[in-house]
Design goal:
The protein is α+β, with helices and mostly antiparallel strands. An eight-stranded antiparallel sheet has the order 3-6-9-8-7-10-5-4, with no helix packed on it. A two-stranded antiparallel sheet has the order 1-2. It has 22 helices and ten strands. It is 56% helix and 10% strand. The protein has helices at 6-26, 41-56, 76-79, 86-93, 98-123, 128-139, 142-148, 154-174, 183-195, 199-215, 217-220, 223-239, 241-253, 274-277, 290-293, 302-320, 325-345, 351-355, 359-368, 375-391, 395-423, 545-579; strands at 35-36, 426-427, 463-464, 468-476, 479-486, 492-499, 504-508, 514-519, 524-529, 534-541. The two termini are 26 Å apart.
């Protein structure tokens, strides 16, 4: 019998529809327009709200977010990638409640996780059913859902959406295929998404890719592969210059809590216990810091763990029978790498011994904070292993096992989400700045030019030295206008309710003349007025010229990349037409 012409198209469409269903399940509780409490929810809602406020005040990009720390401003936009948050911020400007904007963002990221994971798996040459299984299990992984729910770790769960693209891009950079999007471009796209979402996840991703490069040394250290990797690194730097230049400028030239000695502790005690990693209840995970990991799903989940075990068994069987040698070895390699990441996530790994080495090792280990962050890469590797294992099976067996594992993942995800909504407190806010949404900040990006910033002593109004007569004060975001006179015969200062960050400038309103500006007591912006000065002056944040140049470079790189891909796609289409 002849096959109906619509059947092939339907087969191609089914995985996408199935992954849409998985995405709807993964963020089902958030489709009602409300949110439930999560550890970092307020922090990220406040970021969205502050970006919207900055845009309304005609700032772009919003580097210093004004509505933090009693209005003293906070450099979240310099240290924490927020490019993707401009989408929900624009919804806020359109009058959409911040919780609804957050929910729409969450759904978009979840859909990207599912569809991007499927695309990445297909780029790794997995059959449709195997690619669907890998993407669905990754999307419904218990730890990823924990990021979405209990932790509300927006930056990390967004980075996890781009992780499969980075992994597939790295492999296809070493082993090019005939796809329209080259592997190096996919690698740049994936790494850029991780960087612009969560800096710590980016550092971990780079470490994992370096380890992979060493394991795959024969493929990595070839001239052609090294040239492609070098080109990808250059394109990545150009594309992300608008974020990297301000970040490195502050980090390398300024003093902030994030780059000062101290403040990090041995982290091994924060790791997950073996029982937790295997999905056993928290009551069996002895020796944990109760407040940090209580009731958190620090596990890939039963579907991924079972699937990876079955994949390993199938790979060993194939190797014993001397069939599918390379695919089976790749499957075992992914299982081993995933198991190693699980070990890194645990409280059994000797993190304290590494910390005790001091120096760079102490800084790197301390900055990780929680070893169970490695569960993100572990989930991706185990999902890849499951996909590779499914690819070793014949068509019918592959379809059946994929269905069984996806059903197990869906049931576990449903139970996890039901428990979350039953125990977490529902939140309903129109704006992202109402209490109790992080009124003070997490503290990492506080200036420390004159020692640590005392958040309990922050200003809410200007203070001034003897001899100053201050007659008017107005503050709009990070812009302050003051009318004052110095009636003394010596320099006198005015301290403003703004935290000191490079980029602030003071100018006389009438003449445009620059006034002396410095970091004063408790790291506040301080203006020095000369004897006899009388008039109005404005203090505002202005990006250094080289920040603007870096932003222009990133924009030009985007335009050049889009043009290059369009030309490449056109040529390929022409070649395809000519070959028929």
């Amino acid at each position: 019998m002849n096959q109906h012409p619509s059947l092939p198209a339907l087969r191609r469409l089914l995985p996408w529809l199935g992954l849409l269903a998985a995405a709807l399940l993964a963020c089902g509780p958030f489709l009602s327009g409300g949110v439930w409490h999560g550890s970092d929810l307020g922090y990220h809602l406040r970021r969205i709200e502050n970006i919207a406020m900055g845009l309304a005040d005609r700032q772009f990009p919003v580097r210093i977010q004004s509505d933090w720390l009693l209005g003293n401003g906070y450099a979240v936009g310099v240290f924490y990638g927020d490019l993707l948050l401009y989408a929900p911020a624009l919804l806020r400007l359109a009058g959409v409640p911040v919780t609804v904007a957050y929910d729409l963002y969450l759904f978009a990221v979840t859909l990207l996780t599912a569809w991007g994971g499927y695309y990445a798996a297909r780029r790794l040459a997995l059959p449709r059913a195997a690619a669907f299984g890998a993407a669905a299990l990754y999307t419904l992984a218990a730890y990823r859902l924990c990021d979405v729910t209990d932790r509300a770790a927006l930056g990390e769960y967004t980075a996890l959406a781009f992780l499969p693209l980075a992994a597939a891009g790295f492999w296809r950079t070493l082993h090019p295929d005939a796809a329209r999007l080259p592997g190096a471009a996919l690698l740049v796209l994936g790494l850029s998404g991780v960087l612009q979402s969560h800096l710590l996840s980016f550092e971990m991703t780079v470490l994992c890719l370096c380890a992979a490069a060493l394991v795959l040394a024969r493929a990595t250290f070839r001239r052609a592969a090294l040239l492609r990797l070098t080109g990808a690194a250059g394109a990545f730097c150009l594309l992300n210059a608008g974020f990297l230049v301000p970040l490195l400028d502050y980090y390398l030239t300024g003093k902030f809590q994030i780059n000062q000695p101290g403040g990090v502790e041995p982290i091994q005690q924060n790791g997950a216990a073996l029982g937790q990693l295997l999905g056993v209840g928290y009551t069996l995970a002895a020796g944990q810091q109760q407040d940090l990991v209580a009731d958190m799903a620090l596990t890939p989940g039963p579907a991924l763990l079972l699937g990876a075990a079955l994949a390993a068994g199938a790979a060993v069987w194939q190797l014993v029978r001397r069939r599918a040698g390379m695919p089976a070895a790749a499957c075992l390699g992914a299982v081993a790498a995933g198991a190693f990441c699980l070990a890194l996530s645990s409280n059994l790994f000797p993190w304290d011994a590494l910390y005790a080495l001091g120096g760079t090792a102490r800084r790197l280990v301390g900055s990780l904070q929680f070893p169970w962050r490695f569960l993100g890469p572990a989930c991706l590797l185990l999902a890849g292993a499951v996909g590779a294992g499914l690819a070793l099976l014949p068509g019918r067996g592959r379809a059946v096992l994929t269905a069984v594992l996806c059903l197990l993942a869906a049931v576990n995800a449903g139970a996890q989400l039901q428990q979350y909504t039953a125990t977490a407190a529902p939140e309903s806010y129109y704006r992202g700045t109402e209490e109790p949404f992080w009124p003070m900040s997490c503290g990492h990006y506080l200036p420390a030019e004159n020692g640590p910033t005392d958040t309990a002593a922050l200003l809410t109004a200007p203070v001034w030295a003897d001899g100053i007569q201050l007659t008017a004060f107005d503050k709009q975001g990070t812009r302050v206008t003051v009318t004052a006179a110095n009636t003394s015969d010596v320099d006198a200062w005015v301290r403003l309710p703004l935290l000191w960050y490079k980029g602030y400038a003071a100018r006389d309103a009438a003449t445009g003349e620059a006034l002396a500006l410095s970091c004063g007591e408790n790291n506040t912006v301080t203006v020095t007025l000369a004897p006899g000065y009388s008039g109005s002056f404005t203090v505002s944040f202005r990006e250094p010229w080289y920040w603007r140049a870096a932003e222009a470079l990133s924009l030009l790189t985007v335009l050049a990349g889009a043009g290059w891909l369009a030309v490449r796609s056109g040529r390929r289409t022409g070649d395809d037409d000519g070959s028929r």
